[in-house]
Design a protein that fits this description.
Blueprint (H helix, E strand, L loop, with lengths): L16 H11 L2 H25 L1
């Protein structure tokens, strides 16, 4: 938890969801980042395969 000075809330907590996800991604360990990239690539390939078969 970060220190809050002068009653000003932490800016990163109130960012839009894509920005919070980006900061969380880059704050994670390299193992978690690598696994998220692999899962994202796999989902992308699966969606592409399904759309080619269903169209």
């Amino acid at each position: 938890m970060r220190v809050q000075l002068y009653g000003i809330p932490d800016k990163h907590r109130y960012d839009p969801l894509p920005f919070r996800a980006w900061h969380t991604f880059w704050g994670a360990s390299w193992q978690i980042r690598a696994s998220l990239c692999c899962v994202g690539s796999g989902l992308g390939l699966l969606i592409t395969l399904l759309t080619r078969f269903l169209s």
